[in-house]
Amino acid sequence: MEITNVTEYDAIAKEKLPKMVYDYYASGAEDQWTLQENRNAFARILFRPRILIDVSKIDMTTTILGFKISMPIMVAPTAMQKMAHPEGEYATARAASAAGTIMTLSSWATSSVEEVASTGPGIRFFQLYVYKNRKVVEQLVRRAERAGFKAIALTVDTPRLGRRESDIKNRFTLPPNLTLKNFEGLDLGKMDEANDSGLASYVAGQIDRTLSWKDVQWLQTITSMPILVKGVITGEDARIAIQAGAAGIIVSNHGARQLDYVPATISALEEVVKATQGRIPVFLDGGVRRGTDVFKALALGASGIFIGRPVVFSLAAEGEAGVRKVLQMLRDEFELTMALSGCRSLKEITRNHITTEWDTPRPSARL
Fold first, then answer.
1. How many CB atoms lie within 10 A of CB 364?
2. Which of 131, 114, 110, 129 is nearest to 175 (CA)?
3. CA 198 to CA 89: how far, in whole Å?
4. For each of the chain's 367 residues, which pLDDT tens digit applies?
5. Strand partners, 282
6. Whole-angstrom Cα distance, residue 304 to residue 237?
7. Which helix (H) or strand (E) holds 89?
8. pTM of whole model > 0.85?
9. What φ, ψ does residue 14 adopt, rounded to 5°?
């Protein structure tokens, strides 16, 4: 059966993957309210398309932190991709590069920064978890920089791992043939069996709960790479991020895997954008499954979006070809949405192209 949209890969991945692996990728925290809401909130934003505009030429290109990419659709960091497919992060890196967009490699990848760099050219960011042992962090950041990575996406919403009940039920742990490749030489690459979630135990043992804004400043002393703060969902924190020297913000609730009952990222986006006052770019991750979702995020002020689960599900289903197809489908849908809304370039996408449930009623147009 021909795949015609991104969401169809979910069911194929569920069929193909061991239950422990699929559940790890698919689940959210606790009641999974935010997991549903990340999708549902997009459905409550409607379009106000403008007609009779020449849309014969559409330009989707954009520049992110000075790097030109083909479209504002990028690959979010997702952990342990070799659980989905033997080629794992290699396949994802090649697919992102072929699509002319950015891949973010997870700290907890099953391929190292050097291995991913060896797949060939491409603009890549590195997602960072801050370990208790800061020497480990320094070493990792330096390795990423040497391997040609262009930015750090610092995850700030995980002082502890969220309660993901299917991981507890499944006693989730990294399959024995795999390691967290970036930490292999440091004896931090393996996850012990635990009587709940092996990952939760690993995080409790290794990840630094004291992480604070001063560490965002510390990171700037050890690298020249720009730092994106990933996991901001309030205007207050957006303002502090700017003061702390962040180069950008990723509005993220960690795929609804950390604190349940936070708003959908698309609902939190505008507050963050308003707080930044255009001083640094704001990106969105969480719940994007359609080109229409991409347009809605840009209309609310995002400079681009990141996709996570669609990448691992398509990777599980069809390897590199699957990830390429997901990026192409989203690109095609986004281009169509732009055309049907009367927008020829990203700068033409405005807040007036959408209406949300929190808008005040518009005055009726006078003739």
1. 6
2. 110
3. 22
4. 899 999 999 999 999 999 999 999 999 999 999 999 999 999 999 999 999 999 999 999 999 999 999 999 999 999 999 999 999 999 999 999 999 999 999 999 999 999 999 999 999 999 999 999 999 999 999 999 999 999 999 999 999 999 999 999 999 999 999 999 998 878 675 667 666 777 778 877 888 899 999 999 999 999 999 999 999 999 999 999 999 999 999 999 999 999 999 999 999 999 999 999 999 999 999 999 999 999 999 999 999 999 999 999 999 999 999 999 999 999 999 999 999 999 999 999 999 999 998 887 766 666 6
5. 249
6. 20
7. helix 88-98
8. yes
9. -60, -40
Tokens of 203: 């995080």
Do the beta carbons of residue 83 and residue 104 sit within 8 Å?
A: no
Is 85 within 8 Å of 91 (Cβ atoms)? yes
294/299 Cα distance (integer angstroms): 9
And the tokens for 197? Answer: 């979630």
Alpha helices by DSSP H, listed for 147-300, are: 165-169, 198-206, 213-222, 235-243, 265-276, 291-299
Query: HSE-up of 195 (CA within 13 Å, CB side)?
Result: 0
Tell me the C-alpha distance between 268 and 235, whole Å: 9
Is residue 136 within 8 Å of 211, Cβ to Cβ? no
User: Among all chains, which residue has been given the structure tokens 């936070």?
Assistant: 262
> What does the longest C-alpha to C-alpha distance in the chain come to?
72
Residue with token string 């699957």: 322
Q: Catalytic site residues?
A: 254
